[in-house]
Fold these 4 entries.
Entry 1:
Amino acid sequence: MTERVAIIGGGKIGEALLAGLIKSGKPARDLVVAEKSAERSAELTGDYGIRVTDDLADAVEGARVVFIAVKPDAVDQVLQKLSVTDDDGESERITVTLVAGIPTSRYESALQAGSPVIRVMPNTPMLVNEAMCAVSPGRYAEDEQVDLTVRLLESVGKVTVVPEKLMDAVTAISGSGPAYFFLMVEAMIDAGVSLGLTRPQASELAIQTVRGAGALLSESGLSPVELRAAVTSPGGTTAAALREFERAGLRHAVNEAAFACAEVSARTARRVEVESSGKGVQLGVETASETQ
């Protein structure tokens, strides 16, 4: 990869992307971060040997791809600055947003006419290079530009391309999904303590169990149904536990949770579009992305 990349925002997600790109072989000279905090800038420069600037226009100069990794309430300011910066004239600059809840149309209307925009829903496992990123191209993004974005994001995990109309569903499954998983582990640890284990013992047992189960699911080639059946003996201990999950309505709860998450995601996007209509780049987004 030789394309120059600018990352706007040096927070956790911005740093995770930066670290993944460097680990994948991206030369530090082809990376630049725009970050306001002097302390944070010093940390990134010291840890990764890349250039960090507090001047957004300077950061994006000559960049082929610009990743926006800021909180939603900072997007309006970023768009204002990006809208008056020119690309290098040789290859059209791609704007890739990692910000939750803001549709590509909002970026397209704020940037120069015809600007290619690609929306990404990452999740927090990006912090350990195990992200699940969903990519949705805007109206002006070409296949080659989408392919380039996918290749860059593969440095921090897996990537899938979906139409933007499915982004609410993506948010419900992978974007917010880690929180569902963490809640389940928390409940398993509490149950272990109730059964007499110390909290450190219960934590080690639960965390390694779900880690191993995830690896088995990912690498075995078997479906969740097949793996569950393999560990469930008729009339045995696992069967008794699973019967209680079904009695408590686990499947229904997961389904209702996913639909509730998707609805809030859709409401947020609708509010952004309504509030931004006729107001320049004033976004009015109240909820910050959990992935930032």
Entry 2:
Amino acid sequence: MAEDDDEVVVLGGVYSLFSMRARLALSVKGIPYQNREEDLSHKSPLLLQANPIHKKVPVLIHNGKPVCESLIIVEYVDEAWRDRTPPLMPSHPYDRAQARFWADVADKKLFPAGGKLWTTKGRELEANRKEFIRVLKLFEAELGEKPYFGGQSLGFLDVALAVYCTWFQVFEVYGNFRIKDHCPKVAAWGNRCMDMDTVSKALPHPNDLYQFVSALRNTWFA
């Protein structure tokens, strides 16, 4: 069982969606940690040593032992600090399998669709917007009438998805649509998540993220 005085370090990037997950899981569980920003154009020896296979962030280093890949990190945090509330993974094996499945859908479908909203223009953007909304509606249906994907409280899938909330402004501005017009339940869920201190303090402010993305676009589309 992990202890309160354990050394916990996150190697990541402030605007990296996957790094946000690692920080968010620790924040939700109330685990103190040290955040180390990585310059991915000049990767540190520590990152290369901690993640020699993929050489990417995030990496959670717990008492000198590295854990890689964001969803694996979220599960690890939940298991290592099992005595800390709230529990993130569902208690039933089927529910755990479903949570993992939908988190995988987010990574394989929602993430690439969201990225294309601010990296494309014209007809390509129109097609990408339709695809993003189509995928988001899948999560709208999965959420149903529950306040959170985990039920009455934040769970594993909420942590996996809540990192998108700080990106909603970027998606809406550059995708030229409003999420609440198409997925009102997801929009309300996002507001509930961002109203939680444990969520908002672990994520960059949406305005800061928007300014970061705008600067990138200005260089790409100059």
Entry 3:
Amino acid sequence: WIYPFSFSSCRQWFNCCGQNDSESMKIGTLGTSQITQQFIETTQQVANCMVIACCSRELSKAKELAERFNVEDFYNDFDQMCKDGKIDTVYIACPNHYHYSYAKKALLHNLNVIVEKPFTSNYTEACKLIELAKSKKKYLFEAMPILYSKEYKQFKKYVSELQDIKIINANYSQRSRKYDEVLVNKIPNSFDIKQSGGALMDLNIYNIHALVDLFGEPKECFYHANKIENGIDTSGIAILSYEDKQAVCTAAKDSTSPNYFEVQGNNGYVNIIGGINFGETIFSSIHKEEILYTLKQERLKNEIVYINELVNLNDLEMCYSILEHTKKVMKVCDRLRDSAGVEFNADKEEIYIF
């Protein structure tokens, strides 16, 4: 598992990978959603890494989750879980608008933090959180699997072989089962402007991460969004313009489509069939030489292994380098939302938790 960005400490990490004498990462989770369950289940497959506590506002839900996965402790008080001294890391998978506040609390308790995507509601929150992590000398990660994927590194290798890249087309669309509630005028969390929901932050953010990694921040960007009455985007097309290339990123929670991430150059193209997040294969056609590279579905495991090893290496420099990329992504997302008039409550005031 090699981080796609080129930093010197990758070699040190790779040489240490697989050693069994490192300390165990002891994790407490916040939230009981499907992604939290997947995180706990996957963590149980990783050496020197364990979830030992679950937290939810409803104690019964925390208890049910803990019992299902044989987790030692459960809480409905986040501060208490952080103060008990049993964990060293918090995994945060609550509604988007609370990511910043809970991550801030955990850092103030001198704990390392893994935050589900989107990292925060906006660029300002991202900057504040990163500065706090640096001041406390703690680890802070965005749970964005492509940042830690060897398959994504292979995709980057093929892209680097393209000449004079001109067009990038990406689509990540999957109709949400919660969209049925929207159709009867109910507002679930993922479609709530107050909770920093919407298609851009939930799905298109994967495409934006890859674009910013591959080509940097765009010169211009605009988001054409399909919005419902509360102002949230249920689907949309982001257009990102560079000096010599154009990118079109589509994402939808109100409809579905075959997903892909394709980069075109004058000597061929490279396509992740299935999309940048859940890709099945990479198809590369360069100088008419065709290569089909099958992807392993170990994205979450790669992420956990990498984070665990990085912490055991005590490599804060690498951690903070990754966060600089995350900051750029959040800045681009702000620009896209501004262009579409999608404004979160968190853009106007800090969302507090009690």
Entry 4:
Amino acid sequence: MAKSEEVDTSAHTAGRSADRRAGWDQWSFEDAAAWIRRPISTDDKYSRGVLGVQTGSELYPGAAVLGVEAAMRTGVGMVRYLGPTRPTDLVLARRPETVTAPGRVQAWLLGSGMDAAHRPAQTTRSLEAALAEGVPCVVDAGALDLVGQLNASVLLHPLVVTPHYRELAAMLTLRGVTVTADEIAASPGEWAVQASASLNVTVLLKGAATYIASPGGARLSVSIGTPWLATAGTGDVLGGMLGALVATHAELIRTDVDVLAPLAATAALLHALAATRASGGGPIAALDVAEALPSVIASLLAG
């Protein structure tokens, strides 16, 4: 990375020490590199992973574009987008290689750019069908309420949710836990652990630092990045990145659901590194983060 693009490694080291004292493992560059799947000569678009995407809406169509763009730039064989007309048109205009016909997928990305309070009934049925399909799911924003309503006594299949503080408070309220976003912000790691246990899913809690907790006991954190990342649409980019990583590791997840935690931490770290590289010390937009991903991944894989 050029000097203006470098991550503040002193902050990374300090954060790693503090998190370890608190029982959290700060995810490292080397950790992340180990969870990026390199294609091999015998791969085809199917063996490299097919990510199904149900995101965006007529009100927020851009979320679909950002998630699809990020997934493709993270490294996946195919993205299959299924959504309303307007976001579908925008996705195809930006990424014409996107497949918009139904078919088999290895993982789903659900809910980004949707509003649960104004979600059409047909969209709800489609999201519920994807959640019941049995493949790993990354669930964000306007589909989080569906996870909050699931019976947590049985883990139907691998799920990772990506809420911010307000969204996590709403999810926990559905489970009968009274908590505010401010209370979660005061102790995000503790609430990520409690939410993971209550919901029986892997939780990636977004914030100034990212905390990942799983029912299997994983406690991972990412505390690097740039404050310029706090801008509209970057969460949609993170969802696409994580969806791609999950799709490329779907077979492994099938035998070990705890794999979701390191994949979520890898997505969070790549997100922070791409934002830092795209920023160069100045403002960024969400699409800038997605566009920086290939060079960041190449740097990590090169050691």
